[in-house]
Amino acid sequence: MSITLSQYLTTAVQNNLIDSELSALISAVAQLSKDINDKVTHGALAGVLGMAGTDNVQGEHQKKLDVISNEIFVSGVEWTGSVAGMASEEMDDCLVTPSQFKRGKYLITFDPLDGSSNIDINAPIGTIFSITKAPEGEITNESFLIPGRQQVAAGYVMYSPQTILTFSFGKGVVMFTLNMNTGNYILTKENVQIPATTEEFAINMSNMRHWAAPVKEYVKDLLAGKDGPLGKNYNMRWVAAMVAEVHRVLCRGGIFMYPWDNRKPEQPGKLRLMYEANPMSFLIEQAGGAASTGKGAILDLQPEKLHQRVPVFLGAKEEVARVEEYHKKF
Ligand code: FBP
Ligand code: AFP
Fold it and tell me: Domain Fructose-1-6-bisphosphatase class 1 C-terminal, which positions (predicted)?
């Protein structure tokens, strides 16, 4: 018998695994993802493709779907009574829950539409979210600077041939597939586990000349195949949407990397700690994998600012450990 998301969450509340506020919040994210999914699947028919004509706080040009998805996300969670505030990759500052709604006990951070460059080419994109407990008192940008280890839940929705909601509230990773006919998310995978070893990596190879020595050396050895120092023939994949890369790693293993590079030497990496690296690292660790900056666990970082970026190496435990070894050696 198929298990719907509502049944799954209600059972988790009954078993005291989560409280009803967290259940309501995850449920609201699932609900709003159906609205984003509707825009994504209609594309040009819904007039949502192309540029918005605005920039976000990081100076990146926003696509129409970035802006629309952000609005859908905010209005989809602010009323729930579960959140005290929210922060988004697409908003300069955090948003305190408006006074007409009940203040909840959680904070939510999100990337409403990840993989923006895939939007206009009908390739996989997603929504990523991270939930932490809200501190007492007034909510400001600083309230969100909580290490990833303290997340109470995190997940993503991937819009692709299938629309899949993946999340964890700290008791393993589960995946739900959206039945487009009934509008229900149905449990399709439980206890997701990443094999500790792998023969598949993902990195944007066009940046090789810009990487630091440890990453250059490591990827050189990956490419050397069976006759090289690692003694294995590695396959490569690059979808250009972190949601899709992490989904692949969760489904069939592998390592995904977005390292520092010298195109923007002042930035430690491309991916954002609060909206991308932390929630994905939480899922990866929950599935038995590892997530590192190359020098230590991402989840142990003390965030310094809302839109902070980090280098990311995540996936198969032994392969991530190997990356850390290269960082020590070179
Ligand atoms: P956006 O937030 O602009 O979508 O950037 C994040 C991202 O799309 C990741 O999802 C993905 O892993 C990476 O950038 C792709 O980068 P590149 O353009 O180097 O392929
Ligand atoms: P299939 O017919 O087995 O799907 O292979 C075709 C194809 O998937 C093609 O669509 C891709 O461009 C190419 O293979 C990918 O090849 P690699 O596995 O070498 O990346």
Answer: 194-328
* 116 annotated among ligand-binding-site residues: yes
* ipTM (interface pTM): 0.78
Per-residue pLDDT at 281: 99
Ligand 1 atom showing the smallest separation from residue 206 Cα: 19
Rounded Cα distance, 64 and 171, in Å: 36
* 31 CB within 6 A, ligand 1: no
Whether residue 48 lies inside any domain: the answer is yes
Q: Is the pLDDT of residue 329 over 80?
A: yes
- In this structure, the answer to whether residues 134 and 258 fall within a common structural domain is no
- The CATH number of whichever domain residue 283 belongs to comes to 3.40.190.80
14 SS3 class: helix
* Cα separation values, 15 from 11, 25, 133, 172, Å: 6, 18, 20, 15
- Decide: 95 in ligand 1 pocket, CB within 6 A: no
The β-bridge partners of 126 are 114, 158
Tell me what pLDDT residue 137 has. Answer: 96
Alpha-carbon distance of 44 to 72, in angstroms, equals 18
Cα of 239 vs centre of ligand 2, distance in Å, is 13
Do residue 283 and residue 316 come from a single domain?
yes
- Structural domain total, the chain: 2
Is residue 253 located within the same domain as residue 159?
no
- Model confidence at 52, pLDDT cuts 50, 70, 90, reads confident
Residues 184, 206, single domain; the answer is no
Is 37 labeled as ligand-binding?
no
Closest alpha carbon to 288 in 198, 200, 204, 214: 198
64 located within any domain? yes
- Identify which ligand lies nearest to the alpha carbon of 238: 1
Residue 48 has pLDDT above 90, yes or no: no
Does 78 belong to an annotated binding site?
no
Average pLDDT for the chain: 96
Please compute the mean of the pLDDT values over residues 65-87 and round it to a whole number. 97
Residue 51's domain spans which residues? 5-189
